[in-house]
Structures are given as structure tokens and as C-alpha cells.
Design brief:
Elements lengths: L69 H5 L66 H4 L1 H16 L2 H11 L15 H6 L28 H8 L1 E3 L2 E3 L2 E7 L4 E7 L2 E8 L12 E10 L4 E5 L6 E4 L22 H4 L5 E8 L8 E3 L4 E2 L3 E4 L5 E3 L5 H14 L5 E4 L8 H24 L4 E4 L4 H9 L4 E6 L2 H14 L7 E3 L8 H4 L2 H8 L3 E3 L5 E6 L3 E7 L9 H23 L3 E6 L6 H15 L6 E3 L7 E6 L6 H4 L16 H5 L2
Parallel strand pairs: 3-16, 13-14, 16-17, 20-21
Antiparallel strand pairs: 1-2, 3-4, 4-5, 6-7, 6-9, 6-15, 7-8, 9-10, 11-12, 12-14, 18-19, 19-20, 21-23, 22-23
Length: 665
């Protein structure tokens, strides 16, 4: 006869636990051990209390103070409550009901007890911390209970997981780092494979995993969830993304516009006559024309109108040629490494700008979709923009795909890429390098070995991802080329490349309001939403941006008006730098603010806006004069130079002198 608990509910005896008949309650949790210290029940020793369970129940001892979780503890804490309709009290007592849950319970109530005093066979094991495979499904009456019982089980499990400490444990498990690797392949859903936690197909539903959802350390085919992430989101059958790329092809020029929503944020222009100027990324065989020790640089003839420059820090040397020389190669001067007439392999890192020639490096790199191959180097790295768990996964893959004698850098686009995709990308770049190396050995003078693809293909290679809702091209020929290229590197995004409707009466740039935004980007004055303005002036040494309140008069006080105006200006300045492709030294004159917290808030907003720009920037804090000094890597001449030419009348000065007064007559 079981001893009734307070409230009239009997305690459920179970294997390995005393029901109070031997004089010990078997449930003293004060301090985590029994006062009697004796084993109870037929199991010989009392099972250890599950870590994390709390005391506070039945501390007084005695036969009537047993815990209502005795049967659950005896089962190792694995039993789950039996779902189903409410039970009616049995005749002559309440033995048909389960033990009543108490305040502070972190586990579901124990399963109902039959007349034999044993656990119901329908009880199912709950998933435990550290499980690497799904919990076994229930049998018996659980299976027979039908859909209604399954829904009841889901509700009970969801309720149990959402209460008290169990909810906290569940969150900790979801953030776990390790992955199980059970041989049966079942136990991780697509979400769990990324987060490191067991996934569920529904709230409280029994786990149902398939082998095609599992990816062994990213080495196999993408599971459906990862493929869906890379494919991007869709709404009503249409792709959804933050960016849109519009490509306009004309015989005289090809233009690429990148829009964020409806706002133009980047613009690229390529003309046939600019082929001699847009050479960034090309690989050449060059001949050393002269070496300038005072400048620590050498001028190289690469077959372009202007000689390119190679600085000492970009010179590579063959260690085998330096073995007989006691001077360390790193301390050698450039005149000791290069000599006039010598032929070298080099790559352009910066286009020629104005009177300056292109800048070269001898550390050649070949960019692919997922990796960058650095031939004859030991460079090894992974993009810092990727999360830590993704970097660890890619590092394991790179140990297998990295070619001997060459370096690799993993790009941001490699997120969720499989080992097969990385291996194919590396193999393609290796074959490309073998061809370039063969051409270099046959070359007898300055010549082009490798040229970067068309501007549209190059921008798509660098930028296109699932964050783009589409690429719209108005040229049938370029559409086919881009479509084939995207299908070869990212087949899940190939359906986002579209051909612009030739029957549309408006050109593609007018349809997406690109032309009107380009005209505004070429003006020296930019209006802010609140009525303030920016004045952007370009000089020989730097670019100056002045922030004005303009028509913005505010509503409360001067400090608040200035602060709000500067916040708008910080966001717009970052967009204008990116759109106009302004590089070099940049000085921004914000309106003076008296409150230090406001100044810091403006700088935080400005740095956050610049973080979306992939071009490297360096920003310093506000000076005492309210000036912000920054630098932005200068790659080209910028948007203004692309759409303009020097005025023949004023020679770019912007003013015309009175020749009558200067003549002296």
C-alpha cells in the first residue's frame, strides 16, 4: 500500500526506490544525499540525482514525505508524461491519477502507475543534454492514441520545456558548439546542423530526421536548409533581397547600377576606350625600365601608355637565388633585387589615375567565386566577415583542398559552401594558373597574360549573393554569358538573372530611376531629408565635405537640431563616398555639438554606415574643431571623372580670368 502524499495523492513507487515501507523516504534532496546513507529498494544502491534538479520538496523525512518524482528518478529522468484524455478517478480511490506536479518542478509529471506499481510501457524517453541522435519513438498505447494523442504530447512537451529552468537549459543546448556524428546519420535537423543543437520538426513533435538533411562537416551535398539559405528568400514566387543590380549595355559603354531598395548606392562604367585605364587585376610580363633607389621603386613597362610603378614592399624574391648572399633578403635594397632590362611577372593592384601610372605587385592572386588562389605562396586565411563556427568548418575543409605549394584565401561568399564546391573552384583556378605560367615562359617582352572579365561579370563575381533579389540585363548576349557564369558557380541563384523586357517603352535605367539619381550624384550639393545639405568639393590632395543645416530649423532646441542634422549627414556621407567612389584623404566638417554623448553617437552611426562599404576605410574621431579625418582606398578616378572631361576654357579651374585687366593695356 503506497503512502498518500499531502493532498490525498499517492506516491508512485518504482524500481530502485523505497516506497517508505523500509523506514527511509528515499527522496531527501537536502544537500544532494540521503540522511540514512543506506541503499533502498531492490536495486541495491540509490540512483544519483539528476544534475540540475532542486530540492525543496518533502524535506521533513518520514514515510509520508517521499518525492512525487520517485518513479521518474528511478527511470533515470527519461520518462515523459503520457498524453491522452483526462483520466477519471478509479473506483475506491484516486490511484488512476498521476502524482500532482509541485512548484519548482523542472520535469514533467511522472507517467501514470498501473495496478502493478510499474511505469506505463507507453512512457517515452526525453532527449537529454549531449544526445547525438533522436529520442526513440513511443510504442503501445502512445501509438494507438492517434493524432489527438500526438498533439497532446506536443503540447505537454512544449509546456514542460517552456517552464522554469527547463527553458534556460533548452536555450543553452541550442547554443551548443559540438556536433554529434552518429553512424546512423539521424539526429540532426538542417537547423541543428548549423546551430549545433538537435532540431525538431514541430513544437514537441517527435524527431523525424532523414539522411539527406545531414551534411558531414560540410563535405557532402548541401542539406535542404543550407541550400534554401543560399537560394535566398522568396515571397509569392518572387525573389526577395536587399539589393538589385541593373546592367545597361550600349555600344559606347556598359553601365552597372546597384540599388538598395530603390536607392542607388554603387555605379560602375566601362567603355572600350578605357581598356588601357581599367586594368586592375590584370597579369602582365613586364620589363624593368629603371630603378630609383631614392624612391625605393622601379618603373615597369607592361605595354600600356604609362609605365607602372613597383615599390620595394611589393617585390618578391626567390630564396634559392639568395642562398649565397649573407645579407637577409628582407633587408636588401630594391636595386639589389631588380635591374634594368629584367623581365618579371606582375599584377596590377591600382588603375592609373591622372598623371600617375598603375601600381604593381609581384604577389599574383587569382580570384574565384569562393577562394582566392595565391600561386607559389604559403599564404593562408579565411575572411573575417564570416562567423566563428563557419570559419572553423571551412578551416577543416581547406586542409584537404589546399594545393601543395600555393596559398589560399577563403572569401565571404564561401559561407555554406561544400567541400566539393571549394574543390572545383580551386581546380579551376589551378588550371588557369597553369595556363598563365605557360604563357609567361613563352613571352619575350611586355605582354598581357591574363585579363579580368567584362565589368558586369567581374561585379557579379565580387558582389552577387542571395542578398540580391535579381540581376536585370538589357542585352541578350550579355544575359546569356552572365546566366551561364552564374549557373556554373552558384546554380541556386541562376534563376535571379533576368533579361529586361525589350517591349518596355522605358530604358532599364529610367525604369529603376537610376538616371535621376546619377544626375544628383554628379552635383556638388546634396540635400538631406530634413532640409540640411552637404557640399562636396574635390581638390588635388583631398576631398572636403561640409555639413550645413540649410532649411532645417528644428523644433525643440539648437543642440537637438544640430544633432539630428549630423546623424542624417553621417548616413548620407557614407552613401555618397560609396556612390561617387571617392578615395584618398577625406575631411568632413560636421556642425559643432556641445554635448559629448551626441558627438560619440554621430561617430558610431557614421562607422556603422561605413561598415556596409567593402572598400577599406579608416576613420578618426572628431577633432576639437568638429572635423572628422578619414581615408578610403582609392581604386579609380571616381564617378565625376567617369562622366566628365577637363574644360578647355578654364583648364579645370572653374573660373575665367579677365584678360583685359591682365593685359596691362
Amino acid at each position: 500500500m503506497t503512502e498518500p502524499l499531502p493532498g490525498g495523492f499517492p506516491e508512485a513507487p518504482g524500481p530502485g526506490r523505497s516506497n517508505g515501507s523500509d523506514g527511509s523516504d528515499g527522496s531527501d534532496r537536502d544537500g544532494g544525499r540521503s540522511d540514512s546513507g543506506s541503499a533502498s529498494g531492490s536495486g541495491g544502491s540509490r540512483p544519483r540525482r539528476r544534475r540540475g534538479s532542486r530540492g525543496g520538496r518533502s524535506r521533513s523525512g518520514g514515510t509520508g514525505g517521499g518525492s512525487e518524482l520517485t518513479a521518474l528518478d528511478a527511470a533515470g529522468g527519461d520518462a515523459s508524461p503520457e498524453p491522452g484524455p483526462d483520466r477519471a478517478p478509479a473506483a475506491g480511490g484516486l490511484e488512476g491519477l498521476p502524482a500532482r506536479p509541485r512548484i519548482g518542478d523542472t520535469r514533467p509529471a511522472p507517467a501514470p502507475v498501473g495496478s502493478s506499481g510499474s511505469l506505463d510501457s507507453s512512457a517515452a524517453r526525453r532527449p537529454q543534454i549531449g544526445d547525438t541522435r533522436r529520442a526513440p519513438g513511443g510504442t503501445g498505447s502512445r501509438a494507438a492514441s492517434g493524432a489527438g494523442a500526438s498533439q497532446g504530447a506536443g503540447a505537454a512537451a512544449a509546456s514542460a520545456d517552456s517552464d522554469g529552468e527547463g527553458s534556460r537549459r533548452r536555450r543553452r543546448r541550442r547554443a551548443g558548439r559540438g556536433r554529434g556524428s552518429g553512424s546512423d546519420g539521424g539526429g540532426w535537423s538542417s537547423a541543428g546542423a548549423r546551430d549545433g543543437a538537435p532540431g525538431r520538426s514541430g513544437a514537441g513533435a517527435s524527431a523525424a530526421y532523414t539522411e539527406d538533411e545531414v551534411e558531414e562537416d560540410g563535405a557532402g551535398i548541401l542539406d535542404p536548409e543550407a541550400a534554401e539559405r543560399r537560394r535566398g528568400q522568396e515571397r509569392k514566387g518572387r525573389p526577395v533581397g536587399r539589393y538589385l543590380m541593373a546592367v545597361q549595355v550600349r555600344p559606347e559603354a556598359t553601365q552597372v547600377a546597384v540599388l538598395e531598395g530603390r536607392t542607388l548606392i554603387e555605379h560602375y562604367l566601362s567603355r572600350p576606350q578605357d581598356d588601357a585605364q581599367e586594368i586592375d587585376g590584370n597579369i602582365y610580363i613586364g620589363r624593368v625600365q629603371n630603378v630609383l633607389p631614392g624612391m625605393e621603386a622601379a618603373f615597369i613597362d607592361i605595354g600600356t601608355p604609362k609605365n607602372a610603378v613597383l615599390y620595394r614592399g611589393d617585390v618578391r624574391f626567390d630564396r634559392e637565388d639568395m642562398e649565397d648572399n649573407p645579407t637577409p633578403p628582407s633587408s636588401k635594397r630594391i636595386e639589389e633585387l631588380l635591374r634594368p632590362g629584367q623581365t618579371i611577372l606582375c599584377q596590377v593592384t591600382k588603375n592609373p589615375i591622372g598623371s600617375k601610372g598603375a601600381r604593381l605587385t609581384q604577389e599574383v592572386s587569382l580570384p574565384g567565386r569562393f577562394v582566392v588562389l595565391i600561386p607559389n605562396s604559403d599564404t593562408y586565411g579565411i575572411s573575417k566577415r564570416l562567423p566563428d563556427d563557419e570559419r572553423r568548418r571551412l578551416r577543416r575543409i581547406l586542409d584537404d583542398v589546399r594545393p601543395a605549394g600555393h596559398g589560399l584565401i577563403v572569401r565571404t561568399a564561401a559561407e555554406s559552401a561544400t567541400a566539393d564546391e571549394l574543390r572545383r573552384d580551386v581546380a579551376r583556378l589551378l588550371s588557369q594558373w597553369v595556363e598563365i605560367d605557360a604563357r609567361a615562359k613563352r613571352a619575350r617582352g611586355p605582354s598581357l597574360l591574363y585579363g579580368e572579365p567584362d565589368v558586369a561579370v567581374r561585379i557579379i563575381r565580387e558582389e552577387f549573393s542571395r542578398q540580391y533579389r535579381g540581376v536585370i540585363i538589357d542585352s541578350q548576349e550579355m544575359y546569356r554569358d552572365v546566366k551561364d557564369y552564374v549557373a556554373s558557380i552558384s546554380p541556386e541563384l541562376a534563376d535571379r538573372v533576368e533579361l529586361y523586357d525589350p517591349t518596355d517603352p522605358l530604358p532599364i535605367f529610367e525604369r529603376h530611376h537610376v538616371h535621376e539619381q546619377l544626375h544628383k550624384a554628379l552635383d556638388r550639393k546634396v540635400w538631406l531629408p530634413s532640409g540640411g545639405s552637404l557640399i562636396i568639393e574635390r581638390t588635388e590632395a583631398l576631398t572636403v565635405i561640409d555639413v550645413n543645416t540649410g532649411k532645417n530649423v528644428g523644433t525643440s532646441n539648437l543642440e537637438e537640431t544640430v544633432y539630428r542634422n549630423n546623424l542624417e549627414a553621417a548616413e548620407e556621407v557614407a552613401r555618397q563616398l560609396r556612390l561617387r567612389d571617392i578615395g584618398g584623404i577625406i575631411v568632413i566638417d560636421f556642425i559643432d555639438m556641445d554635448i559629448r554623448a551626441n558627438r560619440e553617437s554621430v561617430m558610431v552611426a557614421f562607422r556603422a554606415a561605413l561598415a556596409r562599404d567593402k572598400t577599406r576605410t579608416q576613420v578618426f574621431d572628431l577633432s576639437e574643431l568638429g572635423l572628422v579625418e578619414m581615408t578610403r582606398k582609392r581604386i579609380g578616378e571616381g564617378l565625376l571623372a567617369s562622366f566628365s572631361e577637363t574644360c578647355p576654357t578654364c583648364a579645370g579651374r572653374g573660373v575665367v580670368f579677365d584678360q583685359g585687366l591682365l593685359s596691362g593695356d
